[in-house]
């Protein structure tokens, strides 16, 4: 008989992530209400994420990263052990936003002393992810499409990228990543802190 998710307990990564989110809020001395005001995320959603009752979406994590002044890779690296200099492909951290069809692989190990990182992104056909703000204003991004086609909207300009195309930009406002299909898209995202 298949075990219910609630009986199995939270996903280990979600549990560590929830604990780290709670720590970050406590370090600043903020209540859930204060964090809700700063992030635009409801108190109940924040509470459920901190208790690992829900798996946070990419959009939710992006908002929290903005409040805490971190990239998503930095936040996710904080729930892992000390990063190694070399991370074999089989050991690279993979995070999935099942609700949006987004899979994110941390290719290069993020480190607090370094400004750049590489991420592999995969979006299923029809996936559409909107971020209302960058995690760090002025964040530099290089988006290189390896397979498929990707639509990226930044500063209200839509860019159509095909296999092999690369888009370079600084992120100051909302962005949107969309895979219109018919095939999935796989791309490399190089992120450089300002």
TrEMBL record:
This is XRE family transcriptional regulator. Residues 21-75 form the HTH cro/C1-type domain. InterPro entries: Cro/C1-type_HTH (IPR001387), Lambda_DNA-bd_dom_sf (IPR010982), RmlC-like_jellyroll (IPR014710), RmlC_Cupin_sf (IPR011051), TransReg_Diox_bact_type (IPR050807). PANTHER family: BLR1115 PROTEIN, HTH-TYPE TRANSCRIPTIONAL REGULATOR. Coiled coil: none annotated. PROSITE patterns: HTH_CROC1 (PS50943). Keywords: DNA-binding.
């Amino acid at each position: 008989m298949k075990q219910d998710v609630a009986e199995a307990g939270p996903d280990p990564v979600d549990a560590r992530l929830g604990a780290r989110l709670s720590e970050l809020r406590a370090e600043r001395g903020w209540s859930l209400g204060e964090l809700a005001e700063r992030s635009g995320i409801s108190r109940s959603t924040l509470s459920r994420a901190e208790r690992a009752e829900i798996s946070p979406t990419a959009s939710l994590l992006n908002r929290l990263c903005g409040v805490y002044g971190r990239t998503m890779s930095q936040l996710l690296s904080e729930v892992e052990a000390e990063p190694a200099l070399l991370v074999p492909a089989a050991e690279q951290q993979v995070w999935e936003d099942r609700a949006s069809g987004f899979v994110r692989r941390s290719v290069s190990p993020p480190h607090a002393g370094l400004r750049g990182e590489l991420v592999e992104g995969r979006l299923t056909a029809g996936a559409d992810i909107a971020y209302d703000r960058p995690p760090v204003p002025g964040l530099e991004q290089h988006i290189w499409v390896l397979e498929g086609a990707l639509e990226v909207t930044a500063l209200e300009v839509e860019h159509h990228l095909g296999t092999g195309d690369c888009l370079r930009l600084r992120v100051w406002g909302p962005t949107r990543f969309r895979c219109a299909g018919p095939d999935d898209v796989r791309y490399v995202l190089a992120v450089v802190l300002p």
